[in-house]
Amino acid sequence: MLTQQATDHLPSVGSRGTWSPTFAARNQNQIRVMSVESHPVFLEGLRSVLASQLDMRLIAEATNGLEGIASYRRHRPDITLMEMQLPDAKGTEVLSKIRDEFPRARVIIFTSSDCCGDIDRALRAGASAYVLKSAMKEELIAAVRSVYSGRKYLPSSLAEHLATHIGEETPTARELDVLRLACNGHRNKQIADVLSIAESTVNFHIKNLTDKLGANDRTHAVTIAIRRGYLHV
Predict the structure, then answer these.
(1) Residue 139, CB-side half-sphere exposure with 13 Å CA sphere
(2) What is the CATH architecture of 173-228?
């Protein structure tokens, strides 16, 4: 797993603080990686994994979205490993902002969420790869090398997971507004008041949602939407 202790290590610095010629040459060719990760356990795991690879180097760390954007501007990494759920923003939002400013940025979403909605949003936002934190370290390493070489990377298990939902209608932004309020315990009349729409329109949206998600009722629709990553609680 990614949190296991790495057995390999990088060459050490000489006693006078100068790099050996061999390491200096290798250092120039290393993949420069930045992490945007708020969980200290996973961050420690990332450090260990990257330190075990002679062709990779962790050059910067950020623990939230604002730090991530600022750090990207400062370091311009080859690859960025981005958590989906950050303390101050969603990883896809940070990814979009980085790519708006740096269109060639290569970002790997590295997260615990296997929800189709999250995967789809990440890929649409411009993610070069999507890797789960439950993956073995070899998969993360493969993703970094693949993206660095200019290719996209999506583990076969996630590709199959996405394929099962191809062709399904996704909720609209307004339907998700309705569902979000329903998730918070609002009745239809209250939802109508909050969104300044007619109660009949709320009923219409909920009918569409249950049809799209294959749900029995609005409570079931909320459950399915959370499971698929359309809603986050």
Answers:
(1) 17
(2) Orthogonal Bundle (1.10)
